[in-house]
Design brief:
The chain is an all-beta fold. 0% of the residues lie in helices and 57% in strands. The chain is built from no helices and 26 strands.
Length: 174
């Protein structure tokens, strides 16, 4: 259980998963965390995050978004995890994803977000845009083979799933 943490400057209210790392959650809870930046619960930067079971709930992001999880140019697997009652002031109450760009030897290199969802439950989250989930970033993917996105709220655009910026989306199953 990771609960009640606050990050005043930066990202990752409870957990920050940095470049080229692998994070696996197979149960437990990440709850009641706050951040002034992005990722009230978990921030994943150009890394891999696997969420198999457990819950991410009651987290808040004041900055760029991702009340529950912020996926920044990373790959995330959501298998049976419950992402509920999170809030972001900006985008993606439950989950926010975006492209990450870095310069290597003077050349811009893009890392697009990839989200694979099977059996996840994303409910009762809130944000200005994309109450449940935002998937954005040129060349990124969203593959949803089962799961539920329900009861989320937006004060601006799209309560459930907001997809933009050349994302390839595939939804199968039920």
């Amino acid at each position: 259980k990771i609960t009640g943490n606050r990050t005043e400057k930066g990202s990752g209210g409870a957990i920050y998963v940095s470049t080229n790392c692998t994070f696996k959650m197979t149960g437990g809870s990440i709850t009641g965390n706050r951040v002034t930046g992005a990722g009230g619960g978990v921030y994943v930067l150009r890394a891999t995050g696997t969420f198999s079971g457990g819950s991410i709930s009651g987290n808040y992001a004041e900055g760029a978004g991702g009340g529950g999880i912020y996926v920044n140019g990373a790959t995330c697997y959501l298998y049976g995890v419950s992402i509920t009652n999170n809030e972001a002031k900006a985008t993606g109450g439950g989950i926010n994803s975006a492209r990450s760009t870095v310069k290597k030897n003077g050349v811009a290199v893009d890392y697009s977000p990839n989200i694979y969802m099977a059996g996840a439950y994303i409910a009762n989250n809130k944000a200005k845009t994309g109450g449940g989930m935002v998937v954005s970033g040129n060349g990124g993917k969203l593959n949803m083979s089962s799961g539920t996105i329900t009861g989320n709220e937006s004060t601006g655009s799209c309560g459930g799933l907001y997809v933009s910026a050349k994302i390839t989306m595939k939804i199968t199953g039920g």
